[in-house]
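Design a sequence for this backbone.
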């Protein structure tokens, strides 16, 4: 009897979410893939690496004199490439055999989290200027 493969988020989804939201977000998608594939140890390794990469990006961004948003995208690209081109093929070498999960729920969550941060930043700036 052939075992049915779980639905997973694609390599492109993991890379895109890492670039546009954060490496942590892309790492959570890959973590969810690994949990679905019943690979808990690997899932926690990927989650730990994505947390570490996100912390490194935050620290590097904090020590810059003139931080720019392009820097955040570059860090997301580097972290996303590590997740998508090192970890993903290591654990899902036959990606094309897996049915892909739709990205709508993670996308809505990512946009909602981003909107909350934007509103908080606007509120903080308006309080600072008053």
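Sequence:
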């Amino acid at each position: 009897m052939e075992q049915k493969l779980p639905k997973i988020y694609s390599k492109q989804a993991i890379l895109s979410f890492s670039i546009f939201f954060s490496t942590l977000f892309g790492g959570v998608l890959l973590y969810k893939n690994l949990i679905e594939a019943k690979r808990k140890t690997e899932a926690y390794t990927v989650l730990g690496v994505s947390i570490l990469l996100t912390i490194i990006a935050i620290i590097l961004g904090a020590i810059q004199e003139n931080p720019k948003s392009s820097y955040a995208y570059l860090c997301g690209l580097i972290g996303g490439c590590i997740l998508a081109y090192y970890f993903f093929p290591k654990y899902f070498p036959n990606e094309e055999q897996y049915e892909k999960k739709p990205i709508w729920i993670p996308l809505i969550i990512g946009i909602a989290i981003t909107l909350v941060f934007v509103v908080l930043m606007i509120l903080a700036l308006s309080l600072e200027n008053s």
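The mean pLDDT is 92.
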